[in-house]
């Protein structure tokens, strides 16, 4: 069973960002008691702002160096979170919040951490050459343990293509029973990799994992039995996959690209 059941947005002034965003002005409650929930809409419609507000309200771990509540790039999310109230089946600290733009910094941070740990391990072994072997290994164990944890990703993420590293990150970090908040996870993924991500979503969801995902991807939106909320000038409303603009536009384009391209 998923950990998060719903969110409520308490009433208040709507004359400033982010509360003045049309889709959010009339929002009072969103049901989230589904393994996979998608937030869709045009750029600037408020879906990413709501997702970051949810991350702040839930105290979600982020892939970056800072928590969602402390990230200076999320002022709208922090403001929104002050009026968000979450309804839990069971509160969890498992899972994470990831924006596509955070991943590059995350990979560089892992690279620096790995290099620092390797240097610390080498120094520890060098400085303890006169000690019994058991003591040398005891002192080195913390560094080896942390390096071992980094190997959960397989080859270093910085040694992979952006898309391969992205997918490896998801494979290593999706956890049963966790709350995973993903903002446009398709950004680095080819269509084939997006299908692989769907498989990872399903495997984790079957073990109680929960996902709230802001996306433009018709491939991801096709996840079976997902709940879809569409953000627009008229508010936030449930939507049917086949009727989504992203799906209809993509289908029409693939049927006749020339009909669109001749107007460029």
TrEMBL record:
Places the protein is found: Cell membrane
Residue stretches in coiled coil: none
Domain of life according to the entry: Bacteria
Gene3D superfamilies (alphabetical): P-loop containing nucleotide triphosphate hydrolases
GO CC annotation: plasma membrane
GO terms for biological process, alphabetical: iron ion transport
Keyword vocabulary terms for this entry: Cell membrane, Ion transport, Iron, Iron transport, Membrane, Transport
Membrane topology: Peripheral membrane protein
Location of the AAA+ ATPase domain: 33-259
Keyword Ion transport on entry: yes
GO MF term list: ATP binding; ATP hydrolysis activity
PANTHER family linked: IRON(3+)-HYDROXAMATE IMPORT ATP-BINDING PROTEIN FHUC
Protein name (database record): Putative ATPase
């Amino acid at each position: 069973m998923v950990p998060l059941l719903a969110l409520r947005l308490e009433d208040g002034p709507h004359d400033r960002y982010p509360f003045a965003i049309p889709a959010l002005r009339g929002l009072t409650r969103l049901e989230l008691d589904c393994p996979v929930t998608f937030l869709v809409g045009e750029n600037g419609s408020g879906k990413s702002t709501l997702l970051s507000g949810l991350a702040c309200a839930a105290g979600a771990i982020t892939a970056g160096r800072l928590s969602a509540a402390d990230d200076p790039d999320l002022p709208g999310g922090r403001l929104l979170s002050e009026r968000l109230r979450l309804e839990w089946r069971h509160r969890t600290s498992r899972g994470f919040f990831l924006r596509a733009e955070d991943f590059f910094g995350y990979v560089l941070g892992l690279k620096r951490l790995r290099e620092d740990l390797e240097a610390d391990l080498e120094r520890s072994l060098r400085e303890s050459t006169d000690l019994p072997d058991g003591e040398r290994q005891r002192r080195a164990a913390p560094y080896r343990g942390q390096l071992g944890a980094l190997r959960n990703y397989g080859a270093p993420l910085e040694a992979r293509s952006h898309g391969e590293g992205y997918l490896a990150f998801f494979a290593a970090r999706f956890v049963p029973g966790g709350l995973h908040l993903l903002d446009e996870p398709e950004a680095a993924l080819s269509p084939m990799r997006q299908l692989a991500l769907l498989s990872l979503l399903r495997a984790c969801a079957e073990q109680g994992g929960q996902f709230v995902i802001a996306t433009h991807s018709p491939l991801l939106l096709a996840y079976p039995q997902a709940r879809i909320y569409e953000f627009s000038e008229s508010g936030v409303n449930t939507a049917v996959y086949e009727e989504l603009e992203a799906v209809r536009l993509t289908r029409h384009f693939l049927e006749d690209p020339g009909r669109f391209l001749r107007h460029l």
